[in-house]
Design a protein that fits this description.
The chain has helices at residues 17-23, 66-73, 103-107, 134-144; strands spanning 28-30, 33-42, 48-57, 60-65, 91-94, 116-121, 126-132. The protein starts with 16 loop residues before the first helix and ends in a 6-residue tail after the last helix. The protein contains 4 helices and 7 strands; from the N terminus they run αββββαβαββα. It is globular.
Length: 150
């Protein structure tokens, strides 16, 4: 095959098959929040295709990397944030990860340490859009486990 020859199509079960399976995943509703599986561009030019999650709460939506949400819910990542090209900048945090004297700590002042919150930048500090109980977090984790891997 020469440099300018047409590439062979990918065999079933490889290549972008994971993208079709991801987009076919049923959305998840947890309380006031809607989670949808997405395939988004990442990297410097947005050409790397990655599994992502669109999280929508009260008319505000943000895009998170699926692997970062899994790490956060598994206790391996402190505070995930939305991708740089997300419709809205959002963060997730728990009371355990938010410092008491930080904007996240202020937004989570009345939350339990094991509750996870979706936070949005506000005029002064951060505001909490929704809280997820440990049971809610388990539901989200089980849904993320259904994501096909690239």
């Amino acid at each position: 095959m020469g440099l300018f020859a047409r590439k062979q199509s990918t065999a079933p079960g490889t290549g972008d098959d994971w993208e079709r399976r991801l987009e076919a995943l049923e959305p998840l509703r947890v309380g006031k929040a809607d989670f949808r599986a997405r395939v988004l561009g990442a990297g410097r030019r947005g050409t790397q295709r990655i599994p992502a999650v669109e999280l929508a709460v009260s008319g505000t939506a943000g895009h998170f990397r699926a692997d970062e949400l899994e790490s956060f819910l598994g206790g391996r990542l402190g505070i995930p944030e939305t991708l740089h090209n997300s419709p809205s900048p959002l963060f997730m945090a728990t009371g355990a990860h938010a410092g008491a004297d930080s904007p996240a700590g202020d937004a989570l002042a009345h939350a339990a340490r094991d509750e996870a919150a979706v936070l949005q930048p506000a005029t002064e500090g951060l505001r909490c859009l929704v809280l997820f109980s440990p049971a809610d977090q388990q539901r989200i984790t089980r849904w993320l486990a259904l994501f096909p891997r690239p």
